[in-house]
Specification:
Radius of gyration: 17 Å
Oligomer: single chain
Number of helices: 7
Strand content: 15-25%
Largest sheet: 7 strands, mixed
Bound molecules: S-adenosylmethionine
Number of domains: 1
CATH topology: Rossmann fold
CATH architecture: 3-Layer(aba) Sandwich
Strand order of the largest sheet: 3-2-1-4-5-7-6
Shape: globular
Order of helices and strands: HHEEHEEHEHHHEE
Helix content: 25-40%
């Protein structure tokens, strides 16, 4: 149950404010649905999901059309105002109930263990504090719940990784709404205590020369069941 909805209450200050990038992304992401095959990847990301789902950093809501009818409800968290407005529009067209909620991954405005699944698509690159965001994601997921991820990150040979790191230290985050190229989303999920399920590495676009943002991973991870949770240290 979200504590604050897009239609009610005022958000004092947007936690994420990237108006130029948001405008660019709202256009480019729609073109990428067909041009880069993103629609097909979103379909694959969400296939077979069910129950209550929380999507983190939902952007302009391009995943919404791809949720299967077995999903009871999606709570879509989006901190950027313009993208959130677009997400609200997309939610109205979705075939399942979608509640678009302001908030950020590092402090999710929802109760603990309230969701059967968490969806992450192209967002772990952009959160400010990756371990904290993943701890929050773990908190809101029920024990045994599933993470579906489609994320880009570190990849290619040594020269490509050096390029990714150099871009991360200089212009890339400022130009791309806080995105980083050299993070390791799969390793970060593992480090945060998730069990990795099947996942595959892929290049987007899959033809032509690889770009620093081409190295993607698409797959699943799980919050361990209650009995499998590590015993907290005292
Ligand atoms: C590249 S876009 C991806 C949008 C969408 N998930 C998609 O698949 O098209 C990155 C998204 O992450 C959001 N974002 C950035 N920082 C965030 C944070 N700390 N918590 C949650 N979302 C964040 C941005 O506002 C943006 O919507």
């Amino acid at each position: 149950m979200p504590l604050r909805s897009a239609g009610s209450g005022k958000v004092a200050r947007d936690a994420v404010h990237h108006p130029l990038f948001a405008r660019y992304y709202a256009r480019a992401s729609v073109a990428a649905e067909t041009r880069l095959g993103m629609a097909r990847l979103r379909e694959r990301l969400l296939a077979g999901l069910g129950g209550r789902v929380i999507e983190i950093g939902a952007g302009n809501g391009l995943n919404f059309a791809h949720y299967p009818g077995t999903v009871a409800e999606v709570v879509a968290i989006e901190p950027e105002r313009l993208l959130r407005q677009r997400a609200v529009e997309a939610a109205l067209r979705a075939g399942i109930p979608v509640d678009v909620v302001p908030g950020c991954a590092e402090a999710l405005p929802v109760k603990s263990e309230g969701f059967d699944a968490v969806v992450l698509s192209l967002v772990l690159c952009s959160v400010r504090d990756l371990p904290r965001a993943l701890a929050e994601i773990r908190r809101v997921l029920r024990p045994g719940g599933e993470v579906r991820f489609f994320e880009h990150g570190r990849g290619g040979g040594r020269a490509m990784v050096l390029t990714q790191r150099a871009l991360d230290r200089t212009v890339w985050p400022a130009l791309s709404g806080g995105c980083h190229l050299s993070r390791d989303p799969v390793g970060a999920l593992r480090d945060a205590g998730f069990e990795l399920g099947p996942y595959r590495r892929l290049l987007v676009p899959d033809k032509g020369p690889a770009l620093p943002c081409s190295y993607c991973a698409l797959g699943t991870a799980w919050r361990p069941g209650r009995g499998d949770d590590p015993v907290p240290e005292r």
